Amino acid sequence: MARRLAEHGAVVVDSDVIAREVVAAGTDGLREIVDAFGTGVLRPDGSLDRPALGALVFGDTAARRRLEGITHPRVRARSRELAAAAPPDAVLVNDVPLLVEVGLAPTYHLVVVVETDRDVRIGRLVRDRGMTEKQAMERIAAQADDAVRRAAADVVLGNDGDLADLHAAVDRLWDRLVPYEANVRYRRRAPRPAEVSLTGADPSWPDQARRLAERIRHLVRDPDRRVDHIGSTAVPGLAAKDVVDLQLSVSSLAEADALADRLTDGGFPRLPGDWWDSPKPPDSDPARWTKRLHVNADPGRPVNLHVRVTGSPGWRCALLLRDFLRADEAVHAEYLALKQGLAERSATVDEYAEAKEPWFDTAYDRARRWADRTGWQP
């Protein structure tokens, strides 16, 4: 995959190549490995005997962690150097075999996983890397399994078939990456269609929201920051526009403003101007319903990121209506019918959103009574 992206013009930072460079003969990295594992991991010419080292570490978790403590910091440092040297308009591709294992997925704008059947992988390691079947199986066992990799991936590409099929999938991905890079660089949103288009409930929406939330927590440098999946895509079984709505909780709008550049650089540009939610009775003061709004630079994943002050009316309303729709089947069906009818009659997204507001006013009052009955808390 990386090779095909490079053919398109991407700058590829290959962690596997770097991992070999930082332990080449004469490097501090190799000397530290020898200190840790002995001279038995050296070839007669003084270079690293990788199969010998692999035999020591891939069946021994503690030994593998010790090796990673030597190599990973060096690989990360060299990767940063290469990334910094890339042209400012480059599509930068970090080829990181252990991306999931070391927890780096949220640090990138987009994560692509190439998935291959286990038996095919074993065959390739034996054929291309000179491993025994046992060594190949130990190598795979030391890595994250397919389910964990898929959970971290924004895009999954299959690589069991013909190389031409993989290249075609990478070519389609390139058509997404080029405008994504430009949007991030120019700090602008990805275009969206003006017309309303509802889609059936997508069971992958919650996982997409989780990955986006992890990326946002990384950007705001707070792993415990509250980021909630809200809106229609957060309600199981509800048809919706294919836009993931998220709510980032902040202590104040001043904090929201301080975080704006980090979010924008990370692929969530802030929309200019003043934004607020439609006030719901009995609290009709628009000033209490203000917020900041960020959207997506990625043309392949529409996002609305609502940045609201914790405990504010708009913050509470978003969570309350979501949970009310999840809990009450009759309200769920009522809202679904409304959405479908309005989508058929509305010419634009703005008209569609405005036409839903009267229903939300009454639904909010019902939701408040439901919250009182059930003891709901946000």
From TrEMBL:
Catalytic activity line of the entry: 3'-dephospho-CoA + ATP = ADP + CoA + H(+)
EC number: 2.7.1.24
Subcellular location(s) of the protein: Cytoplasm
Keyword Cytoplasm recorded: yes
GO molecular function terms noted in the UniProt entry: ATP binding; dephospho-CoA kinase activity
The keyword Glycosyltransferase belongs to this UniProt entry's keyword annotation: no
PANTHER family tied to this protein: GRPB DOMAIN PROTEIN (AFU_ORTHOLOGUE AFUA_1G01530) (PTHR34822), GRPB FAMILY PROTEIN (PTHR34822:SF1)
Family assignment from sequence similarity: In the N-terminal section; belongs to the CoaE family.
Protein name listed in UniProt: Dephospho-CoA kinase
Organism from which the protein derives: Polymorphospora rubra
